[in-house]
Amino acid sequence: MLKNRMSFRVAFCGILAALMTVIMLVGPLIPTMTYVAPAAAGVFLIPVVWEFGGKAGGLLYAAVALLVFFLAPDKEAALCFVLLFGWYPVARPKLQHIRQKPVRLVVKLALFNAALLAIYALLLFVFVMPDLQQEAQSWTALLLVAFFVLGNISFLLYDVVLGRIADLYVRRLRPKLFRRGL
């Protein structure tokens, strides 16, 4: 089968890497896409994880993360991809194996909140973005709580959407892509 050949794997992953990189470089040029572009780029890891496994998905994530980190003009979007939306589609299938749904939910939210804290700690203290630091001075406790609550709700919706997109890929797109014995 062509699908099992190394050249096919490299080409398939290369095309997806290019698509993910373009999304990350062009997407954040529109201000509202700072969070949407990394989430959309992460979706393209689903076929790689499904077809070639978590190791291939992890390698693709690492390659795109390096490109995005060094090339992306929007460091906030780049960090969102590198620390959250890039690795999560690769890790999600393993997290789904946690049998107890409340425990699985707590683990996912703990990972999300740790990534979110790391993103903003890096943006405020390492990459020193003056606009963000000035904006952060006006943040109140209520605003921070609202930010985290809405962020957690958005992440849970993203998790559901990833599951639905994976199902859509397996049921609809995969048979069309690989119907000729690829």
Number of strands: 0
- The SS-based structural class is mainly alpha
* Assembly state of the chains shown: single chain
Q: Low-confidence runs (pLDDT<50, min 5 residues)?
A: none
What is the helix tally? 9
- Write down the overall mean pLDDT: 88
Any idea what the radius of gyration is?
Answer: 18 Å
Q: Give the termini separation.
A: 5 Å
Q: Helical percent range? A: over 70%
Helix-strand pattern: HHHHHHHHH
The biggest sheet amounts to: none
Instruction: Classify the beta-strand content into a percent band.
Output: under 5%
* Shape, per Cα inertia axes: globular
Describe this structure in words.
The chain has 182 residues and is mostly helical. The protein has helices at 6-26, 33-43, 46-52, 54-71, 75-85, 88-95, 101-126, 130-136, 141-177. The longest helix is centred in the C-terminal third of the chain and has 37 residues, at 141-177. The model has no long low-confidence stretch (mean pLDDT 88).
